[in-house]
Amino acid sequence: MKKSMLTSTLLAASFLLASPAMAEQASTPPKASAPASQASLPDATDFSEQQLQAFVDSQKQMGQIQQSYSRKLQAKKDNPTEAAAIQQEARQALATAVQNSGLEVKTYNQIAMLARNDADFRAKLQAML
Fold it and tell me: What is the model's pLDDT at position 40?
């Protein structure tokens, strides 16, 4: 159960927080020789135990936000304008929850990205749940 909660929350958070991150990346010129692969992933040692614990602690709240906004989005699936407004509201709610946990959104996204791509790191986070 803990594993599925972390996985689903990571997916939801990455989906909902991706747009601001993508917008930030879009304003930055791409690097000529840096492929978007394992080379661009942060290292697990880049994060303190306090940051990792804040990430883990925020997972329950992130899951609740994801569930709440998933229902709202489902109800507005036939109205793209309202659905877009709900997605923006969800992004803001997630960003606020991340900041309330003591992390910056950028740091949260980096931890989430590493957890999605590094099984050992993901297992460490799951053990902290």
Answer: 82
Max Cα-Cα span within the chain: 45
The parent domain of residue 95 ranges over 2-14+49-128
Q: Judge contact between 15 and 87, C-beta under 8 A.
A: no
| Other Cβ atoms closer than 10 A to 31 | 9
Dihedral sign of CA atoms 75, 79, 81, 84 in order: positive
Choose among 111, 120, 92, 80: nearest CA to 9.
111
Tell me how many domains the chain contains.
Answer: 1
Higher pLDDT, 30 or 104: 104
Q: What is the pTM of this model?
A: 0.70
- CA dihedral angle for residue 70, residue 76, residue 79, residue 82, rounded to 10 degrees: -70
Classify residue 42: in a domain, yes or no. no
Mapping DSSP to helix (H, G, I), strand (E, B) and coil, where does residue 36 land?
coil
